[in-house]
Design a protein that fits this description.
227 residues, mainly alpha, Helix Hairpins, minor pseudopilin epsh fold, three-stranded antiparallel β-sheet, 60% helix, globular, superoxide dismutase activity, Mn/Fe_SOD_BS, Mn/Fe_SOD_N_sf, oxidoreductase
């Protein structure tokens, strides 16, 4: 009789634990597509409205949706202790999570009031680490245009050395998770970011995007990174 009681208790505990896991998973806040602070046509003529609409509402939205689906599957695998399933899901987490992280930064890096040159501490850091603003632009443009296939060009901050660096990442690999650099400015060179307007002439797109870079946002990111 005692044994039956113990078995019943174990089953009730297991059921309660499983219910708790499911409640935690259900309560997990899902990722959402961030709103833009400007209209899709606000960056014209440098990036047209059609590209912005498709890029934001379709491509970024797909990363967000797939990230939520993958995280749900990952939570299920954790609850079951299924390590194999967890490993299988990690590439999808990296790809869709990186896509969400990268694009969330990208939209804020752009502004209809952008362009020109940075000011203050950011400009001083650029001069210190690259010689001049023009040299930084040339170096970042070259690294970005040279990305093979799809990927991103980045200006990042190395917290350990306190210096700025330029890097390129393939696909949707997130800068910080891949290199340790804190992302300040990213240029998306997946074809969906420019092909409808610039066709296969990536250098023209990269040259044009400097006209809508929000140096105020990049400066704010540098200040946050240094804390």
């Amino acid at each position: 009789m005692n044994m039956l009681c113990r078995v019943g208790q174990i089953r009730r505990c297991a059921a309660s634990f499983s219910q708790t896991i499911n409640q935690v998973a259900a309560a997990r806040q899902k990722h959402t597509l961030p709103d833009l602070t400007y209209d899709y046509g606000a960056l014209e003529p440098h990036i047209n409205a059609e590209i912005m609409q498709l890029h934001h509402s379709k491509h970024h939205a797909t990363y967000v949706n797939n990230l939520n689906i993958t995280e749900e599957k990952y939570q299920e695998a954790l609850a079951k202790g299924d390590v194999t399933a967890q490993v299988v899901l990690q590439p999808a987490l990296k790809f869709n999570g990186g896509g969400h992280i990268n694009h969330t930064i990208f939209w804020t890096n752009l502004s209809p009031n952008g362009g020109g040159e940075p000011q203050g501490e950011l400009m001083e850091a650029i001069k210190r680490d690259f010689g001049s603003f023009q040299k930084m632009k040339e170096k970042m443009s070259a690294a970005t245009v040279a990305v093979q296939g799809s990927g991103w060009g980045w200006l990042g901050y190395d917290k350990q050395s306190g210096r700025l660096h330029i890097a390129a990442c393939a696909n949707q690999d997130p800068l910080q998770g891949t290199t340790g650099l804190i992302p300040l400015l990213g240029i998306d060179v997946w074809e969906h970011a420019y092909y409808l307007q610039y066709k296969n002439v990536r250098p023209d797109y990269v040259k044009a995007i400097w006209n809508v870079i929000s140096w105020e946002n990049v400066s704010e990111r540098l200040q946050t990174a240094k804390k």
